[in-house]
Design goal:
single chain, 324 residues, 40% helix, globular
Length: 324
């Protein structure tokens, strides 16, 4: 969770700062294991009738030697306790991290002649369904855009209702999170939340931090631009304090300072946006660099198992190149 913004760093006038050239640091997510020749990776053939996404064999070629044992252990555990999949889904490739922009609650209510709050209440039911499906199908992390930093400019009555809805949800679901071994993380400027809600958030995050079955990350008062700004400010303070040199700044260091450092899988494999809008709206700007995007025409309260299956099947039919 984010504290208030750090003071801006001031640079004295008439002083020159010479920075050493910053060496290129290859993204560690996609670095080829040193014990594998690139030609060997190219020789891996696509399985007949399947998508060109990474198989277990592909992933092993992308691992460092020290990571192979961990990957094999995860595979054994996954195989022995494999979740039941819906028809048409493949066990591999299944996204480990899915992010969702839950859009269309207000339109859903307006189309039905209902008050706006009814749309948000229906949206909560869709979220519960999605969490259950992720747990059932073996997805490890789900991040949902619950409240943007821009949403504070909405009508006061609507904002107050959303805050009360979040508060009620945390209170009612905490026992379920513990029972189902679900870890809750919250990203965003929570200092702006009502005090009682902020305290509830701190409590549920602390109470569930050791749960390992599934992780639900809730973005509240969140901005992708602010996420990057606060990461840069923290790194700048480390440079100022002499803890690091300017040429130590790398992709890996920035990743460590982003709010998604709360998860083992900070980069979503799949982003879903509902309601037919074709934009990412200042959500996880750094983390979505190589994410597969899926835009659903369904309004969020109508987004259920069938729609989620459509998104997952689309993901499994794609060939991920990671910019190469």
């Amino acid at each position: 969770m984010i504290s208030s913004l750090s003071p801006q760093l001031l640079i004295k006038p008439n002083t020159a700062t010479t920075l050493s050239p910053i060496p290129h640091v290859q993204n560690q997510r996609f670095k080829l294991a040193s014990h594998v020749c690139p030609s060997e990776l190219l020789s891996i053939r696509k399985r007949p009738g399947s998508a060109c996404a990474a198989t277990t064999q592909h992933r092993r070629y992308l691992l460092f030697p020290a990571e192979e044992e961990e990957e094999e252990e995860r595979e054994v555990k996954f195989t022995s306790d494999a979740p039941a999949l819906a028809e048409g889904l493949q066990r591999e490739p299944m996204p480990r991290h899915v992010a969702v922009i839950m859009d269309g609650n207000r339109r859903w209510a307006h189309l039905r002649g209902l008050p706006v709050r009814s749309g948000y209440e229906a949206g909560v039911k869709s979220l519960k369904t999605l969490v259950e499906l992720c747990c059932k199908w073996g997805i490890r992390v789900l991040t949902v855009f619950a409240f943007s930093s821009d949403n504070w400019f909405r009508p006061e009555v609507e904002v107050e209702f959303l805050m009360s809805l979040l508060e009620t949800g945390v209170k009612e679901e905490t026992e379920s999170f513990i029972r189902e071994r679900i870890r809750i993380s919250v990203i965003g400027d929570t200092s702006k939340l009502p005090k009682c809600l902020e305290e509830l958030v701190i409590n549920v995050v602390e109470t569930t931090k050791n749960n390992t079955r599934f992780q639900l990350i809730v973005a509240v008062s969140y901005s992708g631009q602010y996420d990057l700004v606060q990461a840069c400010q923290r790194i700048a303070m480390k440079v100022k304090d002499g803890l690091i040199e300017p040429n130590d700044v790398s992709e890996s260091l920035i990743e460590q300072e982003l709010e998604t450092n709360c998860t083992e899988f900070p980069y979503p494999d799949l982003l879903i946006r509902t309601s037919g809008e074709l934009r990412i709206s200042n959500f996880m700007l750094w983390q979505l660099a190589y994410t597969e995007l899926f835009f659903s025409q369904s309004l969020w309260p109508d987004f259920g198992e069938a729609e989620f299956l459509e998104a997952l099947k689309s993901f499994q039919q794609r060939c991920r190149h990671y910019g190469k």
